[in-house]
Design goal:
Length: 354
């Protein structure tokens, strides 16, 4: 739509509402304060967030940084009108990448870009981000809300997150991975935040709407079930790292699944042997596989298939570490072991129970 020559133009007339942005900042301040932790007061409004490593208890820290998004899972939140948990996914994708290196997440910043800023929607999104930060024990110390009409259509938005953690020098993972080590898998809550371009195509093939009953989850709509948040494994894993030296490596199972992510933490001379019969496969993956006729190998390389995190544990301490994990989070399953490499970096036996 064009305006006649000489008509006064304002930023609001161009589609950007500064007042709405200021209102959102005021609305979310209590949410941000709820993420306070030693080292950060979690106040927003300045030009940058501050963090005091000494106040957080570190002596000789190495900083670890990670950033990520939630991919096209955002489209389901937009189209279903459910915005309250997508922020948990955003935090999870970043902090789970920190803890696999033995780092404690310290602080988080978000980037929320939209075509049109809606106060209630924005507040719901940040509420989820704050909840994710509380689950991870990190402070939400800042962020950016960008209203960009013309770049994002209608109610579309995107999210990105940036997390920084720290570990004492000499405590970073992986370290000491050896043949004979045991592989423990921590169950996922479902699809987590990877593979949703395929998920959405399968839903389209099934001719289902987001408010229709989920074929794989009784009592939930399809949108609600698929928006189940990514598990944040931080507190569970940090607890074990403080109590045991048996954890030698951790792998966050995201895009690429087990075949692509587990080899990233293994030395070149070692391989992982995985028993797929041991994987607790949530019903959503069976439905996706059947409805989309997804080949077994493609399923493994696209989704977590039921395992969101893998721990490589010294064999002599496997039972103790398993008990520690079970005491403060999802109960692990024994997936296999580490062996000398002779060919591929990962070897599967059995098949997923779909």
């Amino acid at each position: 739509m064009t305006t006649p020559p000489g008509t006064p133009l304002t930023y609001a007339a161009a589609g950007v509402d500064i007042d709405a942005g200021n209102a959102l900042v005021q609305r979310i301040k209590p949410l941000v304060r709820s993420t306070r932790r030693p080292g950060a007061d979690a106040e927003i409004g300045g030009f940058g967030g501050l963090f005091d490593l000494k106040a957080a208890g570190f002596v000789d820290p190495i900083l670890v940084a990670a950033n990520d998004g939630v991919g096209t899972k955002v489209k389901i939140a937009v189209e279903s009108g459910r915005h309250g948990t997508i922020g948990i996914d955003l935090v999870a994708m970043c902090v789970n990448d920190l803890v696999v290196q033995g780092a404690e997440p310290l602080f988080f910043l978000d980037y929320y870009a939209t075509g049109r800023l809606e106060l209630e929607e924005g507040a719901a999104i940040v509420s989820g981000i704050a909840e994710g930060c509380r689950q991870a024990g990190c402070a939400l110390i800042g962020g950016e809300t960008a209203e960009m009409p013309g770049l994002y259509a209608g109610r579309d938005y995107d999210l990105a997150g940036f997390a920084v953690g720290a570990a004492e020098r000499g405590r970073l993972l992986p370290q000491g991975v050896a043949a004979g080590d045991v592989l423990l898998g921590l169950p996922s809550s479902g699809v987590h935040s990877n593979g949703f371009s395929l998920v959405r195509r399968i839903v389209e093939r099934a001719a289902l709407g987001w408010n229709d009953p989920a074929p794989f989850a009784a009592g939930q709509s399809l949108g609600e079930a698929l928006l189940t948040p990514t598990v944040i494994y931080v507190r569970q894993l940090l607890s074990v790292l403080k109590q045991s030296d048996g954890l030698r490596a951790l792998a966050h199972i995201t895009g690429g699944g087990l075949p692509e992510n587990l080899p990233r933490v293994l030395p070149d001379h070692l391989a992982a042997a995985i028993d797929l019969d041991a994987v607790p496969v949530p019903p959503v993956f069976g439905w996706l596989a059947r409805t989309g006729a997804v080949p077994h190998d493609d399923l493994l390389r696209t989704f977590n298939c039921g395992i969101g995190m893998v721990a490589v544990v010294a064999a002599a301490q496997a039972d103790d570490v398993s008990a520690l994990l079970a005491a403060c989070g999802p109960t692990p399953v024994r997936l296999g072991h580490i062996e000398p490499r002779a060919g591929a970096s990962i070897r599967f036996r059995g098949a997923l129970a779909l």
